[in-house]
Structures are given as C-alpha cells and as structure tokens.
Design brief:
128 residues, two-stranded antiparallel ribbon, 3 helices, flat
Length: 128
C-alpha cells in the first residue's frame, strides 16, 4: 500500500513539474482596479469572516485612482500575487488592524536625452 501511494505521489510530482515548465500565458490589457476589487472579494472570507470568528477585526480599505490606463499583464498571476500580499498582511496582524490597497498613476520624471517618458502605475498593499 505504501509503495502504491509513493508511486501515485511520484506521478503527481511529475505532473506539477510539467505544469511548472509550461510557458506563462500571453500578457493582455487588464484594468488593475478591477483585479484589486476581485482580490478584495476573493480574500474577504480570510480577512473578515475568519478574523471575526477569532474575535479580531480587520478592516479593508481601497484607494483606487480612477481612469488608470490598461496594464499589460497576466491577470491570474497578478491576482495571485495580490492575494498572497493580502494573506500575508492578515497573518501579520494577529490582533486586527487595517489593510489598504491603493493604486496611482506616477508621472515619470524628466527623461534624459533621447529617452521617452513613461508613466507608471503604482500599486500598494499596506497594513498596520
């Protein structure tokens, strides 16, 4: 029985290894604020419901700049990264607190000669 389970685990490890070698999906234009709203909803059971059951209050706040340009990205990877940051913030506040997700458009500084100015989207996940 143990040998059979080891063989099954070996097969699973091989499948995971093959999956990890798959090329990342092609980046597509995405609206970062929409992805952040999805992350807030997807993580709500962890930062609100589970915390309340333990007698802890964690507040979630978003400060999203309207009219951000589209971001060329893989939405699932971006969603996963932001979700992990929210979960890390929850874990870092065993007595409760506030998590803030914010976005802003950062104008580039005056470029050096020949360089093209590029505006950047900044995302911040902050906890206290």
């Amino acid at each position: 029985m143990i040998v059979k389970q080891v063989e099954e685990l070996k097969g699973m490890v091989n499948e995971f290894s093959n999956f990890a070698r798959m090329p990342a999906s092609q980046p597509t234009p995405n609206h970062l604020n929409e992805i952040i709203q999805e992350v807030i909803e997807l993580t709500r059971p962890r930062w609100r419901d589970l915390s309340q059951r333990e007698g802890i209050c964690i507040q979630m706040e978003s400060q999203l700049e309207p009219e951000l340009p589209s971001l060329l990205s893989d939405p699932s990877e971006l969603r996963e990264a932001l979700t992990n940051l929210v979960f890390n913030a929850v874990d870092a506040m065993p007595h409760g607190g506030k998590i803030t997700l914010s976005t802003r458009l950062v104008k580039s500084a005056v470029p050096s000669e020949g360089a093209t100015p590029v505006d950047q989207i900044q995302v911040e996940v902050r906890d206290n």
